[in-house]
Amino acid sequence: MKTILLLLLIMLISISNSQNIKPPVAKIIPKTTELHGQKLVDNYFWLREKQNPDVKSYLDEENVYTEQFSKNFQPLADKIYDEVLKRWKQTDLSVPYFYKGYWYYTKTEEGKQYPFYVRKKSNMDSAEELILNQNELAKTFKFLGLGTFSVSEDGGFLAYSLDTTGFRDYYLYIKNLKTGEILTDYVGRVSGVVWANDNKTIYYTTQDHAKRTFRLFRHILGSKNDELLFEEKDELYNVNVGKSSDDKFIFLTTASSNTTEVYFLNAKNSTSKLNLLYSKKEDHEYYVDHRDGLFYIITNDNAKNFKVVTVSANSFAKENWKDFIPARKGIKVEGLRLFKNYAAVTERVNGLNIIRIYNFNTNNFINIPVNEQVYSTNISVNRDFDATTLRYSYQSLVTPQSIFEYNFLNGEIKLLKQNEVLGGYDPSSYKSERIMVKARDGVEVPVSLVYKKGTKIDGTAPMLLYGYGSYGIPLTISFSLGRLSLLDRGVIYAQAHIRGGSDLGEEWHDDGKMMKKKNTFFDFIDCADYLVNNKYTTREKLSIEGGSAGGLLIGAVLNIRPDLCKAAHLAVPFVDVINTMLDENLPLTVGEFLEWGNPKKKNEYDYITTYCPYTNLQKTNYPDILITTSFNDSQVMYWEPAKYTAKLRTLLPNDNLLLLKTNMAGGHGGSSGRYDVIKEQAYAYAFLLNQIGVSK
């Protein structure tokens, strides 16, 4: 009895101490910028000085402050983490895929942070060959991200790139898979690599100071003089190198957010030159593959949601185009994979994607069937051009990630692997549905929901509402082991498919960017209000979450409607839109003028100022807020959430909770190790649950 009383006393003291801790105070050093006749004063601009010891001291102080308050919910975070581990098959194999005489796959081992990359020659009964051990490579680094992983056609060499800081600086290595040695060939920092068919030539792309991929080089193994083949000087554009499905062509695509230009060269000839397919024409996007002497082109020329045309690789004038998949209203073409006798196309219809199979012998399309209302399906790894089967992935809010194989010859579908959920998971215990919410301008916004059966829709259930809504990226429907810990505690999980993504086609993106960006925020608010008004939850039990541009979403929403919810998580949030978009030396800035606008243009500046989260912070009662970031994030620099936190602290009432947690060794996605990623998710979930009244 005495022991129990002592523990309770310690807990009370700990809670009392955490509540009396004073939050860090960032020093104020005003910096004034004059723009469009206005003076913009930023008191925390100095936090950009990454090498300044005062910056790290401030972030460390915030981390200590956050750790003290985390004692209130860290036991719940630990519990969720343990629950995930119990559901997770930690020692596992991926589904092998065939490429040029070898079966390639990855395997994981319990307790190891990273996968092992292995292969077997000819068939799966052969001896296993370890070709890359990321766990061994990671021993001397706090972060290790794998970028390129590309094997030469003869299987003799592996080109791979590693990021050891989280800042997306990927350095290329070439490994002789016969001897195990790392070649002395060194080309430095790369963004993409493709092998030519001679097994000795690689084509690689590099980045400029702002991490814009802008050059293509040719490197022959053993050579010290690499040939520059292409340089994109327009800062709106990034270049990408890839190979055709039949391995006959190498394509260089240079792209802005709304315009592309493609060059091609013969993959067999290591001295061939780049040939331009079609010159840039503003707002024309096109992407190219090749089969049987024809280029297959996904294009939005007179097709807002894209179509597919074919043209001879020898005579490719636009007047020779022939429709392969014509433009159709309400259907967006998202992807195409070509085979010797078949093609697979991914399309988005009513916010959901489908896969259709085309038989070149019969000239017929067949849809791969699905049996759920809310799901996602995509073409998986298919490296064998001569294959008679298609690998594709499928998952939903209740169905774990699954890999299926569709037989082109007889239409049979075979489940190759479904990620196992340990502990007796029963998908029939949960309900998934999609509802349509009418936004304030009359547009209907899809919302995907999942909850445990028996959860009452009477306003008593807690909820987590997630959103993104930018760059034309549709919000993926996915299964999550961690999310089960929410559902089993009676939480309703919801995803709002708001404008700014392309969930309902390209128009959906157009209606949520540039001078229509605020539709994104209003859609989210209207979805939240609908869910409260229709008794899915209450304000006091509603939490909201978004990351990166989704963090901007949450920040803007909280300024517009600080009463919307009880708690919010902003992950690596893009919250300082004006200052970031004024700095053209930062990664992503120039290329994203077409998404957010350029504040050097007055009309665009005026519009951004109406929603920029950092600019519009106000003295009011905000919900409890957790902000997570990484010191080495190169996509949203750490100082954006740091400045946002510092400024917001000066405006909040004393009883508002604001926590900033900085991963000092992570990147845009947080930590690189798989166990660490789960811990970070469990921590965020525990914070939100604790604030909305779920403490166990």
What do you see in this structure?
- The protein is α+β, with helices and mostly antiparallel strands.
- Among the domains are: 50-85 and 525-691, Rossmann fold (3-Layer(aba) Sandwich), CATH 3.40.50.1820; 91-138, no CATH class.
- 20% of the residues lie in helices and 33% in strands.
- It has 13 helices and 38 strands.
- A hairpin with a 6-residue loop joins strand 6 (116-121) and strand 7.
What can be said about this structure in brief?
The protein has 696 residues and is α+β, with helices and mostly antiparallel strands. The protein is globular and about 70 Å long.
Brief descriptors of the model:
single chain, 696 residues, alpha+beta, five-stranded antiparallel β-sheet, 13 helices, globular
Largest sheet: 8 strands, mixed
CATH architecture of one domain: 3-Layer(aba) Sandwich
Low-confidence stretches: 1-18
Number of helices: 13
Question: In CATH, what is the class of one domain?
Answer: Alpha Beta
SS-derived structural category:
alpha+beta
Shape: globular
Q: CATH superfamily assignment of one domain?
A: Alpha/Beta hydrolase fold, catalytic domain
Query: What is the helix content?
Result: 10-25%
- First CA to last CA: what distance? 23 Å
Q: How large is the share of residues in beta strands? A: 25-35%
For this structure, the CATH topology of one domain is Rossmann fold
Q: List how many beta strands DSSP finds.
A: 38
- Main sheet: strand order: 31-32-34-33-35-36-37-38
Task: Report Rg.
Answer: 26 Å
